[in-house]
Specification:
This protein has about 220 residues and is α/β, with parallel strands linked by helices. The protein has helices at about 25-60, 110-125, 150-155, 165-170, 205-215; strands at about 70-75, 80-85, 90, 100-105, 135-140, 160, 185, 190-195. The protein has a domain at about 70-215: Glutaredoxin (3-Layer(aba) Sandwich), CATH 3.40.30. The strands form two sheets. Strands 1-8-7-4-5-6 form a six-stranded mixed beta sheet, sandwiched between helices. It has a two-stranded antiparallel sheet with strand order 2-3. Strand 2 and strand 3 form a beta hairpin. The longest helix is centred in the N-terminal third of the chain and has 32 residues, at about 25-60.
């Protein structure tokens, strides 16, 4: 009984490789598999990508979920806007960055409309529960007149700051036919003016906007 020696590959020619079960046979098959995986990933991610594009770029009409008017482009707090604190010392309004600011503008006499806005801001902040510490109420006073004791007592958590009315008006935009004293404004923790609420606003709807912003933001 004769035995045969195993055949060896010819010099210069590599031995043929056998594909493992389930393994693509050849470079072309591997590339096709890669494109299939990429296509599947795209199909799965497409609905999310479309929703982000629609909400942030197209901004569907009639489907907006915010009550306030978004300020575009954003207007950062001017570095030149210096206010006078309740201690009589000047400070840059931009130094309040790091918190969400609800801002109202009125003279120090503070009529009924002024008090109503202060009341709304206080209630909206209080309604945020544990998140309320992320929100600061700011009253920009357009003169250095005395604030009534009853107002100071009712709103001790409101920063009552004296500001130059011309500088404030140059920064804060208004609706057609309104004045800067008619609105409540919202500034984000980066110091950008983000939202303007209408004259005679619905405080429940303002509260809804603020609640959503605090929920989805990671700063402030």
């Amino acid at each position: 009984m004769s035995t045969q020696s195993p055949r060896t590959p010819q010099a210069g020619k590599p031995a043929a490789q056998q594909a493992m079960p389930g393994q693509p046979n050849g470079k072309g098959s591997w590339q096709r598999g890669r494109w299939v995986l990429l296509l599947l990933a795209f199909v799965c991610a497409a609905p999310i990508a479309v929703s982000y594009f629609t909400y942030y770029v197209i901004k569907p009409t009639g489907g907006s979920t915010n009550y306030g008017t978004l300020v575009e482009p954003q207007r950062p707090i001017p570095e030149s806007l210096v206010v006078t604190g309740e201690d009589g010392k000047p400070l840059k309004l931009a130094s309040l960055r790091g918190k969400w600011l609800m801002i109202s503008v009125d003279n120090s006499a503070c009529d009924k409309a002024c008090v109503t806005k202060l009341y709304f801001m206080r209630q909206i902040r209080t309604a945020q529960g544990p998140e309320r510490e992320r929100v600061v109420q700011v009253w920009l006073r357009t003169d250095a007149g005395k604030v009534a004791d009853v107002i100071q007592s009712a709103y001790p958590d409101t920063d009552m700051l004296i500001a130059d009315p011309a500088a404030v008006s140059a920064w804060l935009p208004v609706d057609t036919g309104t004045h800067v004293t008619d609105h409540i404004y919202l500034v984000d923790p980066n110091g950008n003016l983000m939202m303007r609420f209408p004259k005679d606003p619905n405080p429940s709807k303002i509260k809804g906007d603020v609640t959503k912003l605090l929920k989805w933001s990671t700063i402030g």
